[in-house]
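Why do we care about 3D structure at all? Because function follows from shape, and shape follows, mostly, from sequence. That is the central idea of this module. The next example makes it concrete: a single protein chain, its amino acid sequence, and then its structure expressed as tokens.
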Amino acid sequence: MQEYHDRLTISTPEAVDVVLDLAGPGTRISSGAIDLVIQGLVALVGLLILGGLNDAIGDDWTIVLASILAFLLLFFYDVAWELLGDGRTPGKMMLGLRVVRDDGRRVDPGSSVLRNLLRIIELPLLYAPGIIMVTLTKRHQRLGDVVAGSLVVREPRRATRALGRTAGAPDPWEGGGPTLQLDTSALTDHDRSTARAFAARRETLDPKERLALATTIAAGLRSRLGVVPGRATDEDVILAVARGTSHDGGGLGAGWGPPDGRWASPEAGGLDTTGLTDHDRTTARQFAERRSSLAPGERDALATAIAGGLRARLRSTGGIEADEELVLAVARDAGAR
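And the structure:
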């Protein structure tokens, strides 16, 4: 693990370095001030209500209820928001901050309770110890952070929006999303073990780290995978490899021939494939081999994507306009070589 003044680099079990931008004293103090204003407004409303009830419940009960309200605001306010808001209080949301564990995972109940319980020590001194520690410590941690093993990191809003799209995508690892059939013949054992390691612990990761890991791992996988549907997210690709819902591309190498004539395309004597690469032909053959097992939407999308690349390198399409027919014609080697 390497540390910098405003940045922390964590090496994950997947052998991927994740960089966390540490929140500095200025933004932490500002977010804390926003939360204090909100707490103050809630306290004011609560006291006005208790004042109106004072005659009915008596002074003793008014004091008891006011004390309970103060404790809830000073302690449970932060704990509740951090656990329900994924490490973010309203002040942190406004400034793009988030509380995480010091290993990059999302904050858990034990850490949140512990880091906020120590506010009791800082409150009588007007949070001066916390402000000093955040300013002087290398990781910008107050006493509660040091004891609980937590950090406050900066989270750009654009990363949050991108994460929302990824997190909302169907999840094949959980069995509720699409089952991607990928050609994994070029993957290494390390690629597969990396995908499994990510799948096993992704739910414990901080969302920003999870997004960064998925992007990095998927980039390496995509460079060695066969055709990947355009709609598949980075997590979809990783989880498909981890689940083993893929094939090894067998039967598509040298000496391959179509199993029968059911998928044959129309003859196209004018099709000139001399500008295509071996990869183009292999891709077309892969599609022809497995197209009957694809969902209609995925099949159309794949045919469109593959045909787009083929058209850019074909010298002549032989008058074939339909994307799927063009891909099948190339798969059959139905043109001039």
